[in-house]
């Protein structure tokens, strides 16, 4: 911040000196005519330094106000993108829960089917037992010599067998009803999952739209600053040497943080044997506090790039320095990832 104030002071000083020099040259007579004998009155144009300084301060204040307003708007867009990202994560969690519920419903349906098969088997067994009982009754009828008590006992056995058959038939119907309800519950959960996926897709589209608007705002700010920088390019030429050390510091810091980011990505990279000897170039866009806004492939092996992008998303938050100039340089960074 002190360097920026110092540069602004130098620029204002140079503007004042330039205006004073122009005023002096304007009031000077450079004609080659011989001087006349009669005395002439010399007129001088006086430039009010206070007025020039006031105008310079007004221009600088307007520029700072515009820059602050644009930064506030960018901050709001970044907050909106962060909120949309939080909504997207909540929807993903909801989808995972719906998937778990679906698996539970399918398990219950399978268990209901097993129960139905068991009841069917018992029903078949009961039918077989009834058939045997009927055969026994026929044998008993054919054997007229057997006692009436034995006949009644066999009839009672047949009656109980029929009762058991009816009971098992009722259980089978109950199991079939349970299976039907389980299927209806599964279909309802599937419909809910699809609605949740649609909501997640809509939230993702909104997040991308917010990121696009933020990118457009940053580009507009860059163009405005470039235009202002072009206006003062001539005056800033003398201060360029002073800014050389500052530029080297910013470049070194950006390179150091880039190495940190690369380490964080490689720590979360799922390495496959086929990745060794290959590279992937990843371009990341970060918010001012290091939140990942976007990650895209910028060249390299496609399979490795997919794994690298997954590792970037897993990190999601990257550390940022305190220097605003270094932060601005890190907000759009290009890294080369290769397994070690």
Automatic annotation (TrEMBL):
The chain crosses the membrane at residues 6-26. Keywords: Membrane, Transmembrane, Transmembrane helix. Residues 105-221 are annotated as: Disordered. One of its GO terms (molecular function) is toxin transmembrane transporter activity. Pfam families: TolA. Residues 105-138, 147-221 have a biased composition (Basic and acidic residues). It comes from the Bacteria. SUPFAM superfamilies: TolA/TonB C-terminal domain. One of its GO terms (cellular component) is membrane. One of its GO terms (biological process) is bacteriocin transport. InterPro entries: Tol-Pal_TolA (IPR014161). The keyword Transferase does not apply. This is Protein TolA. It comes from Photobacterium jeanii.
């Amino acid at each position: 911040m002190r360097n920026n104030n110092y540069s602004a002071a130098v620029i204002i000083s140079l503007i004042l000196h330039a205006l004073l020099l122009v005023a002096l040259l304007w009031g000077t007579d450079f004609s080659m005519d011989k001087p006349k004998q009669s005395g002439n009155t010399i007129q001088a144009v006086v430039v009010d330094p206070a007025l020039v300084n006031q105008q310079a301060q007004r221009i600088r204040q307007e520029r700072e106000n515009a820059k602050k307003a644009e930064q506030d708007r960018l901050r709001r867009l970044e907050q909106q993108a962060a909120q949309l990202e939080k909504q997207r994560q909540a929807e993903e969690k909801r989808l995972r829960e719906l998937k778990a519920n679906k698996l539970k419903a399918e398990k219950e349906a399978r268990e209901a089917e097993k129960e139905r098969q068991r009841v069917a088997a018992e029903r078949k067994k009961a039918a077989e037992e009834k058939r045997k009982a009927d055969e026994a009754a026929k044998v008993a009828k054919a054997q007229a010599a057997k006692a009436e008590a034995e006949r009644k006992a066999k009839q009672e056995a047949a009656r109980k067998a029929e009762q058991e058959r009816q009971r098992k038939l009722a259980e089978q119907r109950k199991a079939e009803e349970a299976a039907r309800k389980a299927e209806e519950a599964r279909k309802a959960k599937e419909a809910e999952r699809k609605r949740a996926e649609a909501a997640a897709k809509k939230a993702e589209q909104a997040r991308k739209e917010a990121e696009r608007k933020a990118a457009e705002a940053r580009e507009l700010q860059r163009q405005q600053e470039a235009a202002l920088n072009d206006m003062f390019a001539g005056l800033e030429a003398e201060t360029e040497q002073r800014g050389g050390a500052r530029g080297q510091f910013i470049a070194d810091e950006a390179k150091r943080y880039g190495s940190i980011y690369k380490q964080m990505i490689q720590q979360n990279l799922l390495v496959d044997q086929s990745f060794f000897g290959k590279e992937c170039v990843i371009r990341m866009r970060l918010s001012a506090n290091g939140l990942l806004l976007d990650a895209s492939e910028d060249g390299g092996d496609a399979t490795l790039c997919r794994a690298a992008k997954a590792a970037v998303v897993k990190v999601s938050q990257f550390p940022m320095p305190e220097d605003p100039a270094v932060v601005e340089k890190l907000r759009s960074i290009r890294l080369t990832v290769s397994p070690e």
